[in-house]
Batch of 3 targets.
Target 1
Amino acid sequence: MKSELASAVSLASETQMFVEQWQRGRLTGSFIQTHLDYLRQEAGGSIKELDESRVEPSIAAKSEICRTQIRALHREILVLQTDADSHVRPLRMDCKRIEHIRKSLEDTKSTP
Amino acid sequence: MKKLLGLTLGIMTALGGFVDLGQIVFTTQAGALFSYQLLWPIVLGTVAIIVYMEMCGRVAVVAKKPVFAVVRKRLGFKLGLATLIASTVLNIITCAAEIVGVAIAIRLLTGWPEKLILIGSVLVIGGLIYVLKFQWIERIFGLTGVLMIILGVSAVALHPDWSALGRGLLPRLPQADTQHRLLYWYFALGIFSAMLMVYEVHFYSSGAMEEGWKPRDLGENFMVASLGSLFGSALTVALMVLGALLFLPHRIFPQMLSTVAMAGTFPFGPKALVLALLGITACIGGAAVETALSGSYNVCQFFNIAWSKNRPAREVRIFTIGWLVMLGLALIIAVSGVRPLTLVNISVIFGMAVMPLTYYPILRAAADKQTMGTHANTRFNTIVGVVFLLIITLAAVAAIPLMILTRSGQIE
């Protein structure tokens, strides 16, 4: 579970950094679309891994939060893909939502 | 000018070896986990590869013996053949990973579908190898790869802590639990191994013969090996700095080439990103060319079959079929959908096991006064070579257990 949480924090944090770079206009259109696709695949892979993993009752709550947040991240990435297809830059709100997901995952990771 | 262009062999060899897909992601991950603490394997690896590149270039020039002719002579047919088979399998796996890397970089540049780019890239790489003479292959990939310098500029622009960077030159165990320490050694070994990938010496020694170097060019051999490796090494350090400055504070463990490309031009705009992606394409493409050609060079040299990229394909049929088969097999693996980083992990860690069997014969041949005459190793050369061979052997022994214990470098 530790490893899955670390990966989830990393993915959320990376998505946030990417969206900030996109907002600053530092990326090309092809890069944005392709990288979003890779991020979506990564998030999808994490969801699949979490769904397939056997969870001990002691960490069931942690696992559930992780799963919920990764699903939320996956949804955010899908929204961002729609923005990219319409050549619209992400809003500050999009960034805030991703930041919230990251924080939630970090809190879950740091709780014993 | 000709001498300057001659440097491209060293640059292409080192960029294809140091700054290939594996090293790009691996070194950035190391920076993201351990900041600058793993700078020392880069320095150690750079000195080791300069020492052995110079030796194999010298043996190729003076004794007219490329690496696999030396391997067969020094290890005997059976052990030599085992080394050849292992090296060929590793070359195919590495070539497959690099082809996927090229496809990713081109997709990031163009947005075209990845499978289409995969096939297109192999056709373009194959076409370039077929049409171009050796010197032009190294010039195109070596010089375009220099665009990667943008990563170095980006790293400097982010104001790294130079004194902390300096402290990274000395090995220091992290103050952490056993798992973290094992990860530290796994990454130290991976970085060291990636810098000494055996296809670099296969390609370099064959390249020295393709370029028709003579004993009077031995000074150039040392310069080409050193400057090319130092340039590749500087880019590797830049990747570690980017990992430490951009990813470590945000707990990002980069797993994708696109993440590293984004970091590579972090302070700059889209034009810098395009340049970096072109540089990455050239470096990784260069690595694909190196591995495909090395595979064929090795087989021909081991069985004493005619080989040369500078001779018409009909005169060196087996050699031509050899690199075509290498590319074809790599493409099959690439389109199968295996994750490129899985392939890279396999090639870097298992590659370690083959290293002593490649570097030992080179050291023996370079030190042999009967074959090398006045160009044989000095005592100092041999001592340095032996010390690195011992380190390589120790690393080879530790590689697979570390891979198992850390589950291929998984973070927690």
Target 2
Amino acid sequence: LTTLLVILMLLVGAYLVAVLEGWVSTGSLRPAGPILSAVALLGHESLVPRKPDRIFFEVAPPLLLISAVLAFAVLPLAPGLIITDLATGALFVNAALAYVMVALLMAGWGPDGAYAMVGGWRFLGQLIAYSMLIVMPITAVAMRAESLLTTAVVQSQATLWNALYQPVGLVVFAVAAMAVCFLPPFDLPTAPGELAGGVASEYTGWRLAVFRLARALLVVTLAAAITVFYLGGWLGPVLPPWAWSALKTLAVAAAMLLVGRYTPRLREEHLLAWCWKLGIPLALFNIFYVGVLLLVV
Amino acid sequence: VEPGGAAAAVISGAREARPSPLRRLVARAAARDLRAFVVPGPDVARARGLDLEAAGLRLSDTPRHASVLVLVGELPAGLKEAAAVAYAQMPRPRAILAVGAGDVSPLPEPDVSAPLGQEGVVSGVGELRRSFAEGAFAPEAPEFDVDAVRTQPQYVCPMHPEVVRGEPGSCPICGMDLVPRESAGDMHHGHMGHGHMDHERPGHEDMNHGDMGQGGAKGHDEAGHEHARHGDAHAAGEGEEQGDAHDAHEMHEHGGAEPEEHGGHHDHEEPGHEDPGREHGAMEHAEGDHGGHERHGGHEHMGHGDMGFMSMVAMTKDLPRSGDGLPMEWVEAPLGPLFPGLPGGLSLTLTLDGDTVAQARAQGVDGRNLEEVTGPVGGFAARVARLDPLSPVAYRLLATRAVEEAAGTPVDERTALARVGALERERAASHLNWLAGYAHLLGYAWLENRAASLQLALLRAPDAEEIARLRAEVLKLGRRVGRTPLLRSKLRGIGSLSDGVGALGPVARGSGQRTDARAEEEVYSTLGFEPVFREGGDAFSRLLVRLEEAIQTLDLVRKAGSVSIPALNLDGAYLDGVGAATVETPRGAATLGVTLEAGEVTDLELETPSSKHLELVSPVAEGEELADALVGVASLDISPWEVLR
């Protein structure tokens, strides 16, 4: 039952994210938009390109979906409202998200189209930029919680949210999170205007619907991860715990989407340069800083 | 059949299926979620004052994600063919909305035709929704199988690749029988076994050939459109597709083992293992879209085969070297004429070395020439204005002034001022239109929406008062752009033309030059005009120049006090003479020379900024990463319509 409830909340979250995304990209709010789009896509043909790498082409969208759901499975919405509270939960988030890269690379290679191919390889480059910035802030979070249990991470923030305890970690992790879900300005693999949809450009019909759903789920998952790791998860007065989780997650997702509306897409070389020259030193400093705080305070 | 009856309601690209109640529901949802692929491009739609999004369409970057093909204005032959390929790529159900497009063959008859104008679009979309809801599914869907998405089969001599014929026969050099191929690179395809997959399906070969040819030999549309056949040959052929793939795989694996089956691949006979590598290179030149898989095919081939193993060194021995010394296979990627990040109609052929552009070539809109506009003086200005939908006012004015020069008609000050008003308003609108398209390429959604809505408001502004209000808005936009994080770092150093040689207009002024035809005109000096210019010579300084010009220009409109162009006033009947005029169009100075004989324009000579700027494409793009090259090329603001032969 818990699983069902969590999946339901995830889907509702994805729906709201899709509404927000529509608003951010077009400037007009259409609450029924995602439903109409999804139904319309199901009614369209789902074409298979001329010379696909069939397995890669078919597996990529579901794999993206699975990777998002798996990562979400270890994130608590409330005490007890979690699919599985793994002892290695915080690490598992990172492990599950690794498949995002695999899925996008497959989606890029599979259809044998130039835009998709460039998009897929670009995301491999993007992974090199963001991957360390996902792991290192989680390390500092786990240090404070003295546990990799995601529930323990939330409880460790009872006195002070990690957002305030280690703000540098939050910034670094949020940037990396946006890069994982290839949201603008990190939308290098899909790059509308530049690659005409990139990795998604050869998907049509229900396969495109799965791809878009997976992307929306990924955004919810990453927003939930930020909530759990930095914004105290379900902690909050008055409202029930699950409501706090939902509110915070949605607020984070909205912020992630809004940033992209007001910034141009990053250049690949800048992304790599900044992530390694600035991001990694900051993440290291964050680990050191948290370590000192833990020892001294 | 009665209008509105079942048979009449089927849309041109209906999906083949029995319209069950569930499907009707789906069709209704699809009708409310129409995604449009715009031909020639959203920039042309905006320049014609159309707001497609306000009419309820969502714009799509690729025909793959679109359900409606929107045709804006009359299209030259080249664009109609490109549009047919795009249409063939769209998944069914799909439909065509023609807005003032006239004859659109080879495309099917548009489902809805509307006159050019916002009301036309709004009512057209409404009508389209109705027919989509009713006719998205039909038991018998119409086929779309025309020459434009097909090419003629070619026959080539196995020993002499230079011998290419349109029909079967024997080689004039060696007398061997000619063998069929799909396109320039396809000999090598066959060799992989890829090429043969098409033959497994009798009846559809032509279609496939056609798509192939488009991808390779003609390179009309964006990469990847060779998939067109799926939309056509198989309305709902999932199963069939599957079968296809199997066939392909089978062939693929056997390709290496039985080379003798594939006549025409004499390369096989040669022991040297570098051959496949080289072949892949050659093939990719012809068929840019297949970069990866060819290589993939190659590897499989080696694994299965009789060719043994091959080292990377041997495989890459003959490949061209790029700047960093790494040998890569060069891929030719045709972008456009319907590429979402470039002005609609501009074709860009990039030779990619990895993701770096090794060579770049640009081409304007195909299939038009200057002779169309010669003829009687009456209506001449309107005909010239139609040449470039992106800046019709500037060209109308250019034609008017050239004729006045030739006829020796004097122009009074009031007329000159009104012309300044009209020209400058268009300049601001044109810069904003460019900015909207540029923001789309940059992935900057807010700027795209804002610039597009200001551009439309400016085009529709009824009087100087409204324009003064818009000036304040444009000023705010400019400040905001200047403050945008990441924008400067993204654009600085991109598309660099430090001295601005060969450039005109804002491109030259973004390189610190003060070239501006307006500076020499008396009427502008009375308005206190000074050209805007910036040092830098890169995409960022061009952006700033255009923004500042948009603001400056609106000041000029305010001072001129009028925004309507007075009609051409020729009261002499003796219309003979030779004259030339230069107008600073939004893209730079254009010069038109005309010869009048007895009231007819018999000869004319036109120099446009975009035809010069086409030559800047290679210095701007070459050696840059793909995205940076596109940003650089787009920063030149080339109007493909100005490029006439």
Target 3
Amino acid sequence: MPSWEAPPSFVEYVRSRHAELLRFAHVLCGDPHLAADLVQDALERVGVAWLRIQRQDDPEGYLRRVIVHRYVSRWRALRRERLVADLPERRHIDAEPADRELWGLLAALPPRQRAVLALRFYEDLSEAQIADVLGCSVGTVKSTSSRALTKLRTGLAHRARMSTGDGVS
Amino acid sequence: MNDLEERLRRLFADDRLALPSSPDVVARTEAAISRRRLRRLLSVLTAVLVTVAVPVVIRVGLAAPAEPSPTPSPSPSVSAVAWLDEPTTLTEIEATQPPARPAARACAADDLAARAVVEDSEGAGGHILTIVRLANAGSSRCTLSGTVKLAGIRTERGTFFDNVGWKQYPATIDPGEQASVDIETSFACGGAQKQNRNVVMTVLGRSYPLPRARLDSTCVVRVGDWYVLRGPAEPQFRYDGLTATLQAPATVARGSTVDYVVTLTNPGPAAVRLDPCPIYMEEVVKNVGFYRLNCAVAEIAPGASVRFAMRLRVSAETPTGPTHLLWRLAEAAGFTAEVTVPIEVR
């Protein structure tokens, strides 16, 4: 069977956009290894249909949808276990942002809540656009976003109480 | 904007979240796609082979004890389904995508809500997507198909973002559920802009004013068909009815490959089909592997057991001493058929 050869436009696209896709996936899922897996997986799925997808208006938007879709729908129960059972042979990447407190709280959010926040505050998508990406209503996006922000606020308040000693009984 | 939202924006903009791009990403993608194609070809060949070989394999598997007595060096190739050298990742685990609903009776005008809801989007690349939703106000499931007419507006048919799998056409909707239709306007065509305000949509002969819809456009307005949004369902366990036992050598050497046998037993009253072919995880200390099971055996009959040969590479850096060998099936819903046995690394 002949091996698959990437079309030149795909090669050019990947070389110019790979780093940005990795960053988007990292913001989305919070784990650099998982981000690399998600992007690689999406490239493999999109690559085979690249010429068709390229003819559409927004191939990068399509690719990001695939990344979000795969993250939200396939990682619910496994994500935390994967973080614990990280592979030792993989190169360690120091990817902790300055705001470790908020980054840590984000890690505890369910994938869909985290995806809504990433699409809203990293991608700057409107609620309607996020609804379209996630395949839900705008109302669901609003309630999901609200729950996520409430959870973060609660977590920050709890940590603040603990650090001042108010939370210690 | 409140402080938390601003803090999130700053966090996501932190340059430390940037990840290094790999120079061989194109080569890896080409190799992976080639492998996928090859696997697809092999699966077709296997399917042909299985029709001949499976009865023999199952008989051999059933003849073996469900919980074999421990031996220092099991001989899996003699009595077990062969190990399949197909490493994979968790991203290969299939989502529980809801099946397409079968069409129901056609919706009548009286089934539909008196008002339609308009949700607009800024879109991208100069295109604006306006989504109109209309609920089933009737008492039973019905199917809304075709598209809509917009009074006084020239339209053409189109589809939008249909490749990801959220939309199901036509819209078969339960009472209270909404059908959706996409309307795309665009300023990408140049020329004079046509203002389309006070839009009125016609569905099944009934008029629906859409006061929130602003369909200004320099292009012909494109209208999709009715669909229903069906996001992925919560994943369900497929294989949680199976139990696993494991036969492995008591000791393994660092830097060696350990062969062992996993026996999957179906204690339930119904056959368990290995479709989609499951992924399993194996681990000794931090030597973790994800592989696809060899599904030459298509199903495990009620009360039957099937033995599967396994192989795990134990790295030379693995700490010596007593530890455990963990094996389990990995599903989108979580892990099942988990088994752990003590093992010593030397």
